[in-house]
Amino acid sequence: MAQQQKKTVFEPWEDPSEKPIIRFKNVTKRFGDFTAIDNLTLDIYRREFFALLGPSGCGKTTLMRMLAGFETPTSGSILLDDKDIAAVPPNKREVNMMFQSYALFPHLTVYDNIAFGLRRSSMPKADIPGRVEQMLRLTQLTQFAKRKPHQISGGQRQRVALARSLAKAPKLLLLDEPLGALDKKLRNETQFELMDIQEKTGTTFVIVTHDQEEAMTVASRVAVMDQGRIVQVATPDRIYETPNSVYVADFIGDVNLITGKAYPGTGEQVEIHWGEAQAPIRANTSKSLAAGAEVKFAIRPEKIGIASEPPQDAANVVQGKVLDIAYLGNISTYHVELPSGDVLKAQATNSRRISRRNITWDDTVWLFWTDTAGIVLTE
Amino acid sequence: MNGGRFSWFNATSLTLGFAFLYLPMLILVIYSFNESRLVTVWAGFSTKWYGELLQNDAFLDAAWVTLKVGFWSSTLATVLGTMAAYVVVRSGRFTGRSLFSGMVYAPLVMPEVITGLALLLFFIAIGLDRGVLTIVLAHTTFAMCYVSVVVSSRLVTFDRSLEEAALDLGSTPFDAFRSVTLPIIAPAVISGWLLAFTLSLDDLVIASFTSGPSSTTLPIKIFSSVRLGVSPEINALSTIMIGIVTVGVITASIVSRRRLVRQRDDEQRALHQE
Amino acid sequence: MDLRRTFLIFVPFAWLLLLFLIPFGIVLKISLSDIALSIPPYTPQLDLSAGWSGIVEYFQALDLENYVFLTQDNLYFLAYMSSVQIAFISMVITLIVGYPIAYGMAKAPDHWRPTLMMLVILPFWTSFLIRVYAWMGILSQEGFLNQFLLWIGIIDTPLTILNTNWAVYIGIVYTYLPFMILPIYAALEKMDGSLMEAAEDLGCSQTSAFWLVTFPLSRPGVIAGCFLVFIPALGEVVIPSLLGGSQTLMIGKVLWEEFFSNRDWPVASAVAVILLLILVIPIVLFQRNEQKQREAGR
């Protein structure tokens, strides 16, 4: 997929000679007693598609509004191209924003909406029509230029908002839940359109979303936020495969969490003792852990195999009883109760028709996984 | 509320209710065309009272004063009321905020006699001669509060991200107000102006306190002649005023309903082209 | 940025301070002064040229004499009481007349409603004075109402309605009816019609469903409407002057006459201050009701 190719060539955050376009330095923002952003430091690089991901109220929108200039940091500084932008009002910033509500001017046509920013820039009057046409073509809106916002569909409105914010060719484009108002099918199509446009224009995009799937699909890097702090910044695959905390593991996708005590073995090996009569979990970790340290073992359901016979030579095997089966068409999730009372979720792809599958409710099954399938978390 | 049939009881109460609201005015209008000076005895159709009204300089002068006062006070009230609405809805906290919003809403419930008396005593205290100016000042003060209520109810539902979008695209705050906010809230501002204008044309009590001998307004003139009893000239004058208002209100409501219907059609069409 | 905000706040603020608050201060002050045969016709006058002693003397001359006078002459007490009574009775009649109209509007087919709304609002835009005046011709001895009643034979001799309290009630009900209808209609209109059906489904008769479900749910509108009629009716001047008789006592009219006929500014001011104090109670109650509605609406 595009994601895979891009990853090999585009990793400016790994390149020490690359200069970030945006730097947050120890930024704190308080509203009265409430701390929205708590001593946050973050770099964003040119041409990145950067996603701020988190539940509502985590501070991601505040962070974006500080970039746009609608909020100023209580302390710390924000640099755009090495210049502190705290004192620059929103109308003087080379940053544009696509609003969650789109904020299309209802009294202006699509054309005039897109031209609005250009007419207030230094662009010569004669060049404006050409630029607007170009944006209309980019977003496939040419035939709707004369319509008013209420005369076009939701998907078209979304594209007008995008065209309007891109028209001035900003250094940085902010997208606040850009696809939130669209239905699921349209949202998926639009995600790829967005990525396409981002690549074509080469603009740095910062997107705010609470939809983890969306963040994973579009972003080059994802910052997971919680209560005004950034918990982890990494590429989507690293966020998913190697979350650095229980919070991230739990927020992104589905996960089984097992609490136990770690006993390091040789090299990176570690044994996790849990439950009364359970064999210890064998896992790998690069963390140096004290013997007996409390840890959480996190493993994705799709990394757990399920079988009706005891499997041969698996690193970890547990026996249990099928409690529930969630059939999702392409995959099924099995909820398996262990003798300890814990419930583990295991996923299997449905490569066979339903009638020919052999695991059903109350069956005794074996769950198994390799020693590298899960990850050991300490926070 | 939907559900339950529209019953005979409902139909009767609506009919009687609207008859109660409109019959008195209808009678007034009909008898303005009465030949006789006796207002309650029909003596044949005639438009002579309209003719006499147009000959009556005192009424015409008063009408002119009223229109002048109405225009200036409603215009001033619209500017001040829109500003006040902005302050109430948008300005956040500042010293004296509760005093301010109290003063914005108080004139709405204040008996006119008190407002009129207070303003008169104030004008005398500062030595301002009573005339058109003092009526304009008085009307502006109470009308701006009505304008502020109308405009702020629109501003409350105004999507602030529209203004932010304008700023984001390079507008100065004033330009954002002029090219985005104002066009969108214009209907509310216009109805605020119309409301202020109507209130000014209508006001008797405050005008009686604040007018001088040379600045009699139409309501003052009507009041003083009506106190002596019913007169066909006043009926004619009332008919003209009722006629203007009726045409105005019906036109306005047709225009706004057309716009609403068109907007709904557009939205339907937009939905189907997805 | 901040300069603009300051300007925006300052202009309307200063206007209201100057033309609303200060005038009330003056009313309060004059209510504490004494009547005098001078221009302006009250004393003391603040004489700043006399310096500090002038100011002290000025404040010493202020007293509550006018308020004492108001309690001694029971004309004022009666006028206050009768204003409250007239406003209250009119409010009740307006509710009885207005509720069925609002209810009918809420029950009417959807496509009628904009027209019905317009019909209710239209009188509001027409001159108040003219609407009151219209009743003078109807209620007089030889007016249309008497002619009509004589014609259908209900009465033998014309009734005296004009220049009685009855005419005042009719005038208030007529002019303030839209203020009662609109909030009740608003409350009824947003009510879920299936509630009535549910009540009937559960065994209520139509009448008991109305009293058990519809009416309680429309109560906020009823309360708002009552205040919107009661508060302005209390200070009414025009209606008692044109429709009421010499025995119709309303405080607004008393104030008006005190000022224009007797030219007793201090007493007029004291009457205004007391009227304001009486009004504070319903106004505060009204505000609290509105507040509660807003909070419940969230």
Characterise this structure.
The complex is a heterotrimer of chains A (379), B (274) and C (298). Chain A has 9 helices and 20 strands. Chain A has 379 residues and is of the alpha+beta class. Chain A folds into 2 domains: 2-94 and 170-249, Rossmann fold; 254-377, OB fold (Dihydrolipoamide Acetyltransferase, E2P) (Beta Barrel). In chain A, β17 and β18 form a beta hairpin. The two termini of chain A are 33 Å apart. Helix content of chain B is 78%, strand content 0%. In chain C, α1 packs across α13 (265-297), α4 (74-107) runs parallel beside α8 (165-189) and α12 runs antiparallel to α13. Chain C has helices spanning 2-31, 51-61, 65-72, 74-107, 113-125, 128-139, 144-152, 165-189, 194-201, 206-234, 238-242, 251-260, 265-297; strands at residues 34-35, 42-43. The interface between B and C is large, with 85 and 96 residues.
* CATH-derived topology of the largest domain in chain A: Rossmann fold
User: Strand content of the residues of chain B, in percent?
Assistant: under 5%
The CATH superfamily of the largest domain in chain A turns out to be: P-loop containing nucleotide triphosphate hydrolases
Distance between the termini of chain A: 33 Å
Q: Helical stretch count of chain A? A: 9
Structural class of chain A: alpha+beta
The most extensive contact between chains is: B-C, 85 and 96 residues
Structure characteristics:
heterotrimer, A: 379 residues, alpha+beta, Rossmann fold, OB fold (Dihydrolipoamide Acetyltransferase, E2P), 5-stranded antiparallel beta sheet, 9 helices, C: 298 residues, mainly alpha, MetI-like fold, 1% strand
Blueprint (SSEs and pairs):
The complex is a heterotrimer of chains A (379), B (274) and C (298).
Chain A: H1 2-9, E1 22-31, E2 34-44, E3 49-53, H2 60-68, E4 75-80, E5 83-84, E6 95-98, H3 110-119, H4 128-138, H5 154-166, E7 172-176, H6 184-201, E8 204-209, H7 212-218, E9 221-226, E10 229-234, H8 236-241, H9 246-251, E11 256-264, E12 269-273, E13 281-284, E14 293-299, E15 305-307, E16 316-327, E17 331-337, E18 343-349, E19 364-369, E20 375-377
Parallel strand pairs in A: 3-8, 3-9, 6-7, 7-8
Antiparallel strand pairs in A: 1-2, 1-4, 4-5, 9-10, 11-12, 11-14, 12-13, 14-20, 15-19, 16-17, 16-19, 17-18
Helix pairs in contact in A: 3-4, 3-5, 4-5
Chain B: H1 8-31, H2 48-55, H3 57-90, H4 97-109, H5 112-125, H6 132-156, H7 160-168, H8 173-202, H9 205-210, H10 218-226, H11 232-272
Helix pairs in contact in B: 1-11, 2-11, 3-6, 3-8, 3-10, 4-6, 6-8, 7-8
Chain C: H1 2-31, E1 34-35, E2 42-43, H2 51-61, H3 65-72, H4 74-107, H5 113-125, H6 128-139, H7 144-152, H8 165-189, H9 194-201, H10 206-234, H11 238-242, H12 251-260, H13 265-297
Antiparallel strand pairs in C: 1-2
Helix pairs in contact in C: 1-13, 3-13, 4-8, 4-10, 5-8, 6-8, 8-10, 9-10, 10-13, 12-13
